[in-house]
Amino acid sequence: MGATTPVVLGSVLVSTATPPISTTAVGATGVPVVFLHGLFGQGRNFTQIAKRLQPEARSLLVDLPNHGRSVWTEGFDYDEVADLVAEALATGIAAEGPVHVVGHSMGGKVAMVLALRHPELVDRLVVVDIAPEAGGSLGEFAYLLDSLAAIDTTALSGRAEADERLAERVDDPRVRGFLLQNLRREGDAFRWRANLELLRRELQAIGAFPDVGGATFEQPVLWVAGERSDYVRPEHDPVMRGLFPRTTLVTVRGAGHWVHSEQPETFVSTLRAFLLPVA
């Protein structure tokens, strides 16, 4: 956060040394598409997906608060996160009109709240493997957060040692690679980019969904589920369609929760069919 004095906006702790929302642009032409990552993620997780939408799309990869290069906060609130993202979009990529928004997991909930609170900013919405309700197993995420927090980053000699330590608790090298993208070197030491203390403390809030007060979003919505995931279930359908009446559900075979990394070919083709104009 740097040495500057922070300013508190609601539950958002803003420092002049850290942007509230950090973004990365991919491409310069085509329809605008915004990507919102899930827990432990960063905007850069969608870099290859964004590149494969070129030249028909130009993408904005967002670091959500408490992740990547964006601000760390004192608490977690989906309304406030969505409003921060809305401000960044309204003064940037969405200044001239609405944009397509793609959100995965936690980022999918932010995307839904964004569309419901700021519908003028969103053209089409893609919600990836999450529902607008509290649900899914938080145990896996709690375990992963604990696994990262158990590593003494001040004593690490390098990323290889971090991987060895994490392997004691996380067998899957693909998952370890994803998590270790959060490890950042600062001089001779390492630290986590993600605000692990806040994420551990607020995990129940992250797993919930806010009261949207009867709001609906009337534009087209693509709801993408992983076949091997339980985050989108039949009982979620009435709530989803109540909030988003023009929802189409697509289930990606062979995919778990991280649909875009497990089945990237199918994910890209699905996005292209839904978001991009037909030649």
Query: What portion of residues is helical?
Result: 25-40%
CATH superfamily name of the largest domain?
Answer: Alpha/Beta hydrolase fold, catalytic domain
Strand-residue fraction?
Answer: 15-25%
Number of beta strands? 11
Kindly name the structural category: alpha/beta
Write down the CATH class of the largest domain: Alpha Beta
Counting DSSP H or I runs of 4 or more residues, the number of helices is: 11
Q: Major sheet: order of its strands?
A: 3-5-4-6-7-10-11
Determine the mean pLDDT: 91
- Alpha-carbon Rg, integer: 18 Å
Account of the protein in words:
The chain is of the alpha/beta class and 279 residues long. Helices cover 33% and strands 20% of the residues. It has eleven helices and eleven strands. The longest helix is centred in the first third of the chain and has 13 residues, at 78-90.
